[in-house]
Amino acid sequence: MKLILKWVLSAAALLLVAYLYPGVQVASFGAALIAALVIGLLNMLVRPVLVVLTIPITILTLGLFLFVINALMFWSASGILAGFHVSGFVAALIGSLIYSLLGVGIDAVVS
C-alpha cells in the first residue's frame, strides 16, 4: 500500500513541478503516473551504474556531479515518454531539483 501511495504522490509532485516550472510539461495525471514510474525505474536501474562509473568526477566536484546524474535521469524519462516533456538540460536540472525536494517530503510523509 505504501508503494502505491508513494507512486501516486510522486506523480502529483511531478504535476506540481510542471506547474511551478515552465520548462517541464506533463500532459495529464496518467502521463504523470507513467513518468513517475519511469523515473523511479531509471533511478533504480541506471543511476547506480552511472554513479559508480563517475566516482572520480563526483569526488573531484565534491559530489555536485550527482545533480547532473539526477538531471540526466529526469531528461531521459522525458525522451522516452510522449506525455512528459523537458525543454533542455537546464530545465531538467531545475526540474529534478524540485522533484527531488518534493520526493524528500513524500518519503517523510509515507515512511
Question: Can you walk me through this structure?
Answer:
It is a single chain. By secondary structure, this protein is mainly alpha-helical. Helices cover about 80% and strands about 5% of the residues. The chain has helices at about 1-20, 30-45, 45-55, 55-60, 65-80, 90-110; strands at about 25, 85. The mean pLDDT is about 95.
Secondary structure: elements and pairs:
Elements: H1 2-20, E1 24-26, H2 29-45, H3 47-53, H4 55-60, H5 65-80, E2 84-86, H6 89-110
Antiparallel strand pairs: 1-2
Helix pairs in contact: 1-2, 1-6, 2-5, 5-6
Task: Output the keywords.
mainly alpha; two-stranded antiparallel sheet; 111 residues
Shape verdict: globular
* Distance between the ends: 12 Å
Rg over CA atoms:
14 Å
Number of domains: 1
- DSSP helix count? 6
Strand order of the biggest β-sheet: 1-2
Major sheet characteristics? 2 strands, antiparallel
Task: Give the SSE string.
Answer: HEHHHHEH
Structural class: mainly alpha
How would you summarize this macromolecular structure in one to three sentences?
The protein is mostly helical and 111 residues long. It is built from six helices and two strands, in the order αβααααβα. The longest helix has 22 residues, at 89-110.
